[in-house]
Amino acid sequence: APALQIIRPEPCAACGSRVRFGKAACKCCRCQLLVHAKCREQCPGPCVPRLRQRAWPQQGVLADFAPPVPPLVPALVAQCVTEVETRGLAETGLYRVPGAEQLVREWKQRLLRAGDAPPGLGAVTDVHVVCGVLKDFLRGLKEPLVTGCSSPNRLRGATTDIPDEAACNTALCHVVTKLPPANRDTLAFLMLHLLRVSRSPHCKMDVLNLSRVFGPTLVGHSCANPTPLAIMEDTPRQCKVVARLLSLPPDFWRRFVGTEQENRVPL
Question: Could you list the residue range(s) of the whole structural domain that residue 206 is in?
Answer without folding.
Answer: 62-257
